[in-house]
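Lab meeting, item 3. Inverse folding demo.
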C-alpha cells in the first residue's frame, strides 16, 4: 500500500502543478490584446464609455478617471524579483497602485500579496492561470476565478471583486464572446477594469518609452495605465516609474485606485475563518507541488544523465568484452566419460530442491547429458511432494540424492558442497536446464588460479506470452549485458543461483553460503571478492531457467531479489574502506550496484510520470519525441545485447510495451523493497510455484530426446 500511496502523492502533486502552470508558461514575456471584432455585440454605452465597467446592471455602468487623476495598474504578478521593487518605488513616492494578480503567482508568493495590502495598495483578480477567458467555457471561467479567490484567501485573508480579463486590456478589444464573459462576471458581482493607455512594457521598448506611453495624451485628462510587475525582466518598468511618478506629480496629477473611481473605499474585503482555512490548504498544496516538481525536475536531469551514461558505458564495455572473448582461446568439447581420458577437471554439481517434482527430472537429464564428467548431488530440502523419490526413480548415472530437513536454500547448498568429491562445484536451481556444454564453459575460467567463481548466462526458458517476452528482454539486456561490464571491471556483484560455479577452497575462505540475506548468491559473491578471489563471467555457459508466469509471482520474486540485494550490499558495506581486491570491489562494484540497480531504477519512474505530465500539461509533440528518444536508446542497447547473445531480434517488438507496463511493476517492487529495508522488517522466503515449462530452443550441441 505504501508504494501506491507514494505514487498517488506524486501524481497528485503533478496534477496540481500542471493545472496551476497550464496556460501561463507561454506568456512569460507577455502578449498583446485579443484580435477581436472591436465593438461587435458590445452595448454602445460600454464601447463609448469609461474603462471601468460594472456589467451587472442593465444597462451596464462605466467609470472614468477624473481630470488630472492617474491610476497605475500592474498585471501578472506578484513576482519575487520585481513586485517588491515596484512597491518600493510607489511607497517611496506615496502613490497607490492596483495590482491584478494571478492565482498561481499568489499561491506561490503569498507574502508578496500581504506586503502589497499592508502598504495600502489595491488587489484585483487576473484569473488563476492567465487564459483567454473568451475561449473558455463558463465552468472554466468560474473555476479560474474561484481558485484565484482561494489563493487570495489563503495568502492574505481577502477576496476581491475587481477583475481584469487577460488579453482584453481595453474596451476596444471586446467582441461578442468576450462581452458574454464580461456580462457573466458582472452577474457574479465583479467590476471589470480595462485601461486607457497600454505602455506595452512587456515588449521592453526602453524605460523612457514606457514612461512616455504612460503620460496622458491630452494634458490634464484622467487615465488608467497598464504596466506589468511579472512575466519577464521588468527592470525597464521600474526605471520608468522612477521618472514617471515625479514627472506626473510635477504636472499637477494625483494618483488613485480603481475603487475610488467606482465610488467605494475598497474592492477587496476580508473572508471568514472557514474560507481562510480552505485558502490556506489550497496555497499549501500549490506551494508543496511547485517545490516538489522543481525537485523532481532536478532529479530527472540526474537520472536522465545516469541512464544515458550507463547505456554508453555498457555498450562500450560490452563491445570490448566481446572482442576480448573472441581473441581468447577456448577449449573444444570434452569427450564423454566412456571415451578416452579427459584433461578437464571433474566437477560436482549441486541441485538444491524443495517441492520441485514437476521440473527436477528435466533438470537432471540435462546435467547427465553434459559433455564433461559430472557428479550430481540433489539435496532435497525437506520436500513434501515426493521430489527426492522422483529424482531417485529416474535411475540416472552419477546422481546422488541427499535428504535433509527443511533449513533453507543456503543450508541445502552447503550440504551439497560438503558431499562434493571435487574441488569445483557447479550450482543451479532445480527448475534450470543446462546445455551439454554449460558445465564445461563454467569450469574453463578456473584454469586461472585467482578465479574463485564464474557466473553463467541465464536465459528465460518459458518466454512464450507477453510476460515471458518482457522477462526475456530483461534477462538478455539488463542482466547479461551488465555482467559483461562487471566482468571487465572485475567487480561482478552476483553469480546467479540458476547457473554458477565455485572453487570449494574459495567458498570455505569466504565462509560458505549464508542465510543472513534472501540473496544468498549475491551474498556469497560479495564475500568471495572480500576474500580476495576474482569472479568471472562465462557468456557461453547457457542455462535455461523458468521465469515467473504471473504478475503476482513476478512481484514476489523480484521483491525478494531487490530486498536480498540491499541486504547483501549492507552486509558487505565495509568493503568500501578495505584494501586490495576487496577495496576494488567496494569502491567500484558497490557504488555501481547502488547507483544502477537501486538509485537509478528508483528514480526512473520520473521519466514516465513527467512524460504523462508533459502530454497533459505541456507540449505533447515535444514530450512524445523525448520519450521516443529514450525508447530508441533502450532499443539500441537491447538490439546490441541480443546480437551479442546470438538471440533473434523478433521479441524486441514488445520493448515499448515493456517500458509502459512491465517497468512500472518493477518500480513499485523496488520501492516496496526499499521501504521494507528501511523499516527493518525480516522478509520471509517467498518461493515461486513451478510449472516445469522450460523450453530450450534448438542450438548448437542440442539435448537428448526427452529433455
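The presenter then showed the designed sequence:
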Amino acid at each position: 500500500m505504501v508504494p501506491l500511496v507514494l505514487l498517488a502523492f506524486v501524481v497528485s502533486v503533478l496534477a496540481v502543478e500542471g493545472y496551476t502552470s497550464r496556460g501561463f508558461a507561454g506568456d512569460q514575456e507577455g502578449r498583446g490584446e485579443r484580435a477581436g471584432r472591436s465593438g461587435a455585440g458590445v452595448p454602445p454605452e460600454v464601447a463609448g464609455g469609461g474603462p471601468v465597467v460594472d456589467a451587472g446592471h442593465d444597462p451596464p455602468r462605466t467609470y472614468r478617471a477624473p481630470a488630472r487623476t492617474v491610476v497605475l495598474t500592474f498585471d501578472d504578478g506578484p513576482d519575487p524579483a520585481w513586485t517588491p521593487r515596484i512597491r518600493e518605488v510607489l511607497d517611496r513616492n506615496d502613490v497607490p497602485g492596483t495590482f491584478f494578480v494571478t492565482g498561481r503567482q499568489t499561491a506561490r508568493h503569498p507574502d508578496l500579496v500581504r506586503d502589497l495590502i499592508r502598504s495600502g495598495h489595491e488587489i484585483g483578480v487576473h484569473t488563476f492561470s492567465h487564459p483567454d477567458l473568451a475561449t473558455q467555457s463558463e465552468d472554466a471561467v468560474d473555476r479560474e476565478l474561484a481558485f484565484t479567490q482561494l489563493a487570495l484567501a489563503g495568502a492574505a485573508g481577502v477576496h476581491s471583486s475587481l477583475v481584469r480579463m487577460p488579453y482584453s486590456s481595453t474596451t476596444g478589444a471586446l467582441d461578442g464572446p468576450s462581452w458574454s464573459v464580461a456580462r457573466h462576471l458582472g452577474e457574479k458581482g465583479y467590476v471589470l477594469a480595462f485601461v486607457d493607455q497600454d505602455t506595452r512594457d512587456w515588449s521592453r521598448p526602453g524605460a523612457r518609452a514606457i514612461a512616455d506611453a504612460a503620460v496622458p495624451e491630452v494634458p490634464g485628462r484622467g487615465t488608467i495605465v497598464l504596466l506589468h510587475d511579472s512575466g519577464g525582466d521588468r527592470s525597464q518598468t521600474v526605471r520608468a516609474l522612477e521618472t514617471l511618478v515625479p514627472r506626473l506629480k510635477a504636472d499637477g496629477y494625483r494618483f488613485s485606485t480603481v475603487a475610488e473611481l467606482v465610488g467605494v473605499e475598497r474592492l477587496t474585503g476580508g473572508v471568514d475563518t472557514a474560507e481562510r482555512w480552505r485558502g490556506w490548504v489550497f496555497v499549501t498544496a500549490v506551494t508543496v507541488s511547485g517545490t516538489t516538481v522543481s525537485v523532481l525536475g532536478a532529479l530527472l536531469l540526474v537520472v536522465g544523465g545516469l541512464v544515458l551514461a550507463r547505456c554508453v558505458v555498457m555498450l562500450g564495455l560490452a563491445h570490448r568484452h566481446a572482442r576480448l572473448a573472441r581473441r581468447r582461446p577456448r577449449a573444444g568439447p570434452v569427450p564423454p566419460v566412456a571415451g578416452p581420458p579427459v584433461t578437464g577437471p571433474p566437477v560436482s554439481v549441486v541441485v538444491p530442491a524443495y517441492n520441485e517434482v514437476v521440473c527436477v527430472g528435466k533438470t537432471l537429464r540435462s546435467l547427465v547429458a553434459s559433455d564433461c564428467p559430472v557428479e550430481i548431488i540433489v539435496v532435497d530440502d525437506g520436500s513434501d511432494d515426493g521430489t527426492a523419490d522422483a529424482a531417485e526413480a529416474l535411475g540416472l548415472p552419477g546422481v546422488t540424492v541427499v535428504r535433509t530437513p527443511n533449513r533453507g536454500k543456503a543450508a541445502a547448498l552447503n550440504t551439497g558442497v560438503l558431499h562434493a568429491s571435487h574441488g569445483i562445484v557447479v550450482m543451479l536451481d532445480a527448475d534450470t536446464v543446462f546445455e551439454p556444454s554449460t558445465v564445461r564453459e563454467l569450469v574453463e575460467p578456473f584454469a586461472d588460479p585467482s578465479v574463485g567463481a564464474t557466473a553463467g548466462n541465464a536465459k528465460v526458458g518459458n518466454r512464450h506470452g507477453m510476460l515471458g517476452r518482457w522477462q526475456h528482454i530483461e534477462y538478455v539486456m539488463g542482466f547479461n549485458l551488465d555482467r559483461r561490464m562487471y566482468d571487465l571491471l572485475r567487480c561482478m556483484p552476483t553469480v546467479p543461483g540458476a547457473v554458477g560455479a565455485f572453487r570449494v577452497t574459495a567458498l570455505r575462505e569466504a565462509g560458505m553460503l549464508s542465510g543472513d540475506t534472501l540473496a544468498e548468491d549475491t551474498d556469497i559473491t560479495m564475500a568471495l571478492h572480500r576474500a580476495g578471489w576474482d569472479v568471472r563471467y562465462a557468456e557461453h555457459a547457457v542455462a535455461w531457467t523458468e521465469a515467473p508466469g504471473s504478475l503476482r509471482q513476478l512481484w514476489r520474486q523480484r521483491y525478494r531479489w531487490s530486498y536480498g540485494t540491499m541486504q547483501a550490499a549492507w552486509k558487505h558495506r565495509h568493503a568500501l574502506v578495505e584494501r586490495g581486491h576487496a577495496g576494488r570491489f567496494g569502491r567500484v562494484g558497490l557504488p555501481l550496484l547502488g547507483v544502477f540497480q537501486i538509485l537509478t531504477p528508483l528514480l526512473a519512474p520520473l521519466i514516465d510520470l513527467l512524460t504523462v505530465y508533459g502530454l497533459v500539461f505541456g507540449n505533447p509533440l515535444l514530450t512524445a519525441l523525448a520519450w521516443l528518444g529514450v525508447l530508441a536508446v533502450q532499443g539500441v542497447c537491447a538490439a546490441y545485447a541480443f546480437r551479442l547473445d546470438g538471440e533473434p531480434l523478433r521479441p524486441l517488438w514488445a520493448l515499448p510495451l515493456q517500458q509502459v507496463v512491465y517497468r512500472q511493476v518493477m518500480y513499485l517492487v523496488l520501492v516496496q523493497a526499499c521501504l521494507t529495508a528501511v523499516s527493518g522488517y525480516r522478509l520471509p522466503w517467498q518461493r515461486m510455484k513451478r510449472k516445469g515449462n522450460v523450453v530450450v530452443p534448438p542450438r548448437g550441441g542440442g539435448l537428448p530426446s526427452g529433455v
